[in-house]
Structures
1.
Amino acid sequence: MEGAEHRRIKRPLRENPYLVFEQWQFPEDPEFKVIGRYVEPKDGRKITGRELYMRDIKLPGMLYAGWLTSPYAHALVRSVDADAIRSMPGVRDVLTCKDPDLHVEGSPEGLAAAGELEPLNVKRPEIAFVLPCEAVFEGQPVGVAVAADDMRSLYDAILAARSKVNWEELPFVVDRDEALRPDAPVAQLFRGQETNAVDPKSAGLLPFVPWVPSGASRWEMGNPDEGFRQADGIVEFEVKANVNMWGGGGVEPWAAIAWLHDGHLELWIRNQVPRKTGLFEGLESPPPKGLTMEVAAAVAGVPLSRVKVHIPYFGTSYGGMNWNGYSVIPTLLAILFSRRTGRPVMVLADWSSWSGIIGEEEGRYRFKVGFKRDGTITAVEVRSNVTWGIAGLTMPGSWKIVESTSIKNFRVEGVYPYTNKPPAACYKHGTTECLVLNEVFSRVAAALGMDPTELALRNDGSMGLPMHPDLDEIKAAQGFPVRDSLREVVEAGKRAIDWDHKWHRPGAMRLPNGNYHGIGFAWCPEWQVAPWHSVSPDTAFQVGLSLNEDGTAVIRGLRALVGNHEPSTYAQIVAEESGLRYEDIEFDHEFQDAVLSPPSGSNGLVWNSALMKELGMRTRQKLLEVAGEHMGKEPGELDVKDGVIYEKANPGNSISVGSLVAKYREHFAGGIWATGRSALKGTLIPPSPMEAHSWGRQAAFVEVEVDPETGRIEVKNVVIVNDVGRVVNPGSVAGQQYGGVYMGISRALGEEIIYDPNTGVKLNDTLAWYYVPTIADVYPVHAIAVETGLGYGAYGIMGVGEDPAALTRAALRSAVHNAIGRWVNEDPMTPDRVLRALGRA
Amino acid sequence: MSSANAHGGRQDSSGSPGVIRLTVNGKRYEFKVGVDVMPFTALRELLRDRLGLTSLKEMCEGEGVCGSCTVLVDGRPTLSCLTLAVDCDGKEIETVEGLAESGHPLLEAFSRNYAYQCGYCTPGFIMSAKALLDRNPDPSYEDIVRGLSGNICRCGTYAAILSATREAADALKARRGGGGL
Ligand code: FES
Ligand code: FES
């Protein structure tokens, strides 16, 4: 394929000086009628304000509930004057942390029997109780929860509760390195440990990466010592990444509603995994799924048949918040309050308890990298001290860099001490893996004076094997096109940013205005959750379709909609395969009995494309069979197009889908179904997890100016290139690309929760004090979606959601180095840190 | 004859409780102060709770920094979380629901350009954009950046919001009989 010219397609999304979007295909790529083309979005009610989000929901007699949050980094609630709170106007119910109802463990109602809460809240070092008496970070729900008639009474009661609590302040530790010292205060007493060290085994470290054994805190591949011996050069360095805010906490404040009445439980939840899916269940230690309907039923003491779940739209909620035990607190409290009061109860999380949730982990990384003069990297050693989060699942340095390079020798160690900081979730996430990969590559390129795009291409591969010829052969054997994803994204990006003219030696270009000019590059493999998870035979995914007498159709399945225009994307695939019109297809995302792949992990469409394709094909088949009966023809003599079934040899002989359904209702009454297992037959399944290579590559190019007087970094231009496998909905892909770019840039430049070392309290946890980019920070972004068909989903689809944010952050780091010739070893790169790197502060 | 009373709103000469009168999306409403609306009620709460206008979102919990609760009060973009309802007596209020009824080109342009992702910030952006286009029917991209810089979109949809706003300006111009950018 090398040398073939891409077909560049511009979609009718209006360009402006800050946005260019292109799809790049090869002439021989399949042509689709609906897939990959511009369509009107289907979720337009959001624009009119008519689409309901959690706080827009009102139920008859609904109570409003909330909690006290800890003003201290570490404290015990010794006692609470609950009667004083109970007697306040409008207060209906008060729970204190002493109440057995509130404890997940050992609750008489059998919360522990729900089973799944165990790995969720106890084994993993997160929060063990719904409302504990010990607060282990500032902002944690603690001590008292209140249900009241209205929001005002609730806020008054919570405010009053602050003075009705008898606190005991405890020693705290917020610094990760300090936490490991033998004399450090014990950060989380309830765990019964004498130190802050986390034993990954007892904490249930997951075998998220198949080559890392479960519970390991150290892992090696090949022979790292030999790799360092063979090296012509070695670089050793340290990088510190600080915590940023989990994005969802900052947009739509968290809430949950439960209504337990007459033995029925109705829930409104903000959870990406509303039902058990079977995903990951083949693993020895499956990750937590948050509060699924199954768990809620057990907590409420009702059979599953009496649980109904609603998933209103989410205000910015990308990423796996549901993986974090903390995320179940509002729903569990709502169920408990509803059980006690008999009323629907909305639990409203207040800002301080959610804004502290960590988006990307805090980490200290120590690197040692060996390399040859020609750029071959011979050994990598990464030792990290990181917040438990997604990092706790993988050990930074053991996943993406292994998955996407030919490097043969690794030594990786990870520690995750408890501190008095909040837990982490993931959110368009990438620090621990994307940052690690790109720090290794950027530092080696700088040490060799080598073009970093060349260095990437030289080491591209997977699990120690080079891309050419070894992996090309495996690609072909597994049925994938033998395309070179990294080369394609690099070439597209270099051309778009004019790399060959602009790249220079670090610190070598001073502009007439006195600023330094810099240009940087970063790359990573696709960010879908590792493909071996995509092909678990245990998945319970299912989707249905019903056809109506007016020719319209409804796709039915349970799916949290997070903002990637999922209803449009699904309808496009079903329309493509079935012959129905896109405009005629809607998506009912609250259908209880069929569950789609959840959005977390950029993996949603990998699975759901396969399901939708199968559903569309089955729909077409059904229409042809019934119409064949009606017209006295064989199905093979007929076709479906634009909602009309016709005889191929005589197109005038036709019947519309609506008329057919009206005439033969009984044939369509049961709906049309597709399941995960059947859909899988249409995708390329690697023979085993160890042969499930990651083929797709992503790249970011960033151009900056750095003012040496002020340390200010100005982003001049960004090119983001994603191999998405296949574009289904260009509007959705473009949005995920440039949206992620803004997130990545703001993380690199300023997003950081600052803790006062003297009190352990957050100093900037409101939107007034925490840096979030506005439209005034808009940068020119050129987004290119390359279509290689190298993903594991139907049509070769792969995920795009996470990469742009993770990559842009990494590319910006290397652009700043290219500008000033020094590394800024602490992220985000605030002006004071840039000046320090320049030796000016 | 009426005069402002201690609770805001107006009291008529008979001494009956004060009322405030608002025109919301072209319809007139009257609320009794102390009964329908408290002196401390924010405009946002009144419009959501009494009129069911769910387009008024809230990110920052009334800190005045996110813009997702933006409405137009007498044509000016206003943070409804920080505005007392009683201070709006006699004023005209517009929300996205009103624009949807009248078929304003901004809605079509936001949809066509995929200028929303999760959609939570979108009604606030549209109202800020409406205020901008009302006072500057032919804004440059820099004007749009300035006009919309009080709103936050955590999904980072800014680039498409620029396109959508400019496209709506062109559509309005075409309606008036002019050309586009
Ligand atoms: S809710 Fe944020 S400005 Fe009004
Ligand atoms: S579209 Fe999600 S916050 Fe703007």
2.
Amino acid sequence: MHLKKLRKLLLLPVSLLIAALFLTAPKAQAASKKTYIIGTDQTFKPFEIQDKDGTYNGKNPGIDIEILREIAKHENFKYELKIMSFNADVQALQSGQIDGMIAGMSVTEERKKTIDFSNSYYTDGVCLAVAKDSKITSMKDLKGKTVNVKTGTTSAIYAKSIQKKYGFKLKYYTNSNTSWADVKAGNADACFDDGPSLRYGIANGTGLRIVGKQVSNAPLAFAVKKGENQELLKMFNDGLAWLKKTGRLKKIVNKYTSKKAVKSQVVADTSILGLIKDNAGALLQGLWMTIELSIVGILAALVFGLILGIMGIAEHKFWHGLANVIIYIFRGIPMMVLAFFIYIGMPTLLGHKLPLFTAGILTLMLDEGAYIGAIVRGGFESVDVGQWEAARSLGLPYYKALWKVVAPQGFKLMIPSLVNQFIITLKDTSILSAIGVMDLTQTGANLIAQNFQGFKMWLIIAVIYLIIITLLTWLSNYIQKKMQH
Amino acid sequence: MEEKYKVQVTDLHKSYDGVHEVIKGASLDVAPSEVVCIIGPSGSGKSTFLRCINKLEDFQDGHIYLDGVDLADPKVDINKMREKIGMVFQHFNLFPNMTVLENITLAPVELGKEDKETAIKEAHKYLQMVNMDDKADVKPTTLSGGQQQRVAIARALAMKPDVMLFDEPTSALDPEMVGDVLNVMKKLAQEGMTMIVVTHEMGFAKQVADKVAFFYGGVIKELGTPEEIFDHPQEEETKNFLNKVLNI
Ligand SMILES: Nc1ncnc2c1ncn2[C@@H]1O[C@H](COP(=O)(O)OP(=O)(O)O)[C@@H](O)[C@H]1O
Ligand SMILES: NC(=O)CC[C@H](N)C(=O)O
């Protein structure tokens, strides 16, 4: 009898979840043109050059973006850029989260197994770079040194292949700028990256120097998942042929690689106030996303946690076990892994894309919900057993006793922990930047990839987080005080 | 099962851990309107025995009949049975999140016994009986122990039970509060309530009980009228126990 009731209770979130998954399924494509989601790198000069505000909307967004722009216009298709780390892009492509990808991506035999490439628009290869004043003059000097590479790139693959021979240590980064900055700062001794990119950076003052020759040259191309989005691939190839024929491709490439190449936008005012002023729009947008994620996330987590908590003290022991297992699983999985699993892994299972925001909320719901489940169960359990006994002795059935007598007292005990969990949730949303959610953290990372003001920008971001959390703490203290009276 | 008994416990066995029996075959018959006091050394199983009677504790063997219905029968709806068995605890266990009045009306209203209005009227009646009507709208935490216990009695009575179980109802009270609670219990007894009372108040047992059961080592070692137990105990253990408690 109680089992049935609980099952009904459980059905609610499960059906909500399923509904969420399907509602977010791509709406039947109306007659209107499809908008392709194209993944690209966070920053990969001169192929991707971010504007001051971290986007690619400006006049000099880099070779890849200009090519894509021209082709889309010529072939008459719409696209939306998805800015993530190179590695996240590749995974998103393979799982079908994005339709295509352009990110200075090299054509390799290995990648061809899962990816269809367009014709090539450029050729590049891997180079070794060190700080300007470094003593390293050849690969032989790398013994025992630390060498930076970008996860999932041909540089990383190349470095790995010669690592034993030269005896260096590898350190992985998700974007080139941080990898380079690390070498310049002396935290690492050298880095491998694409030659054109390193050279462009050097011309723009990264303070590095290239050692030796460019190796393992390979064509760069636009990519789609193997066997999918073939019409997009064809349009790209057609457009590229047109760009080549009309000389436009050469013009674009020259714009960024010739002697008179455009410099990346210089940040005018690098004082903290100047940075805030210049980036206020982007920061506010990021902040808003963080707040939205936190609120929707904690609400979803509360529902999930409440159900877990009730299962955890249900009359039938079976539910205790189930709740324990669920809590154990989601507390045990690092949130970032869970986020990747949901965002990158689930689409394979579902057969359609999962919007980023939904994936983020699901992650928060499951991860934070598991913690809330433990809090709720703990709160119920810390109510004096005499309360149960008194309620049951009056003839109240288990769930009435729980709902009318135990739960109200339990909730009161839980409030401080729940508030604390809300603050943790707000902080945890920053982890979702890993899957490309444009929250405050990701906005910061994108801005820094462009303006190199790591110290000041992270300081600004940290202070913004502190301010919201302080406000939240005040608010919760106020509410708690109110509740006591 | 004989119809003349309100409560009949036969050969009850109970262990908490499945190994050590705490109740080792106890039997007790309680006639309607009878007051049975259970006395005995602490740890002898008195509370456990009492808590089995409304199945707050499960038991492994034996039968407990209430008006002929066997609580050991898994088909019996225990919630329905509990409605007929009032219980008063050592630590009162009032619901701190509700007022005195809400404590009392909760069960009758939630279980559909009475509509809210009637329940409130009835509650005031019981509160008057325990002399607590002036405190109907306060939270229990503001009351003294003795006052809380009287409210707890009113709460149990509001379900109009056939039997009342008392588990050391005065043990947690300051001495000056004990009298008020015992007076309420006496009044109940006089009104004909069937009562089973685990108590250390020998005076109360002597004065009010129809039968006194001496619990020892998980069984009822000796059972009789107050005169029989207090004035002419037969068993060695009963004598020792009474010597100890009456001489302090
Ligand atoms: N919840 C419990 N779990 C395990 N053992 C218990 C529990 N409650 C009581 N006991 C044990 O059962 C025995 C009888 O206890 P109890 O019925 O409280 O005795 P009394 O009321 O006569 O003092 C004691 O040995 C006690 O330790
Ligand atoms: N965006 C990039 O870092 C690309 C690096 C390299 N060309 C690759 O394909 O792996």
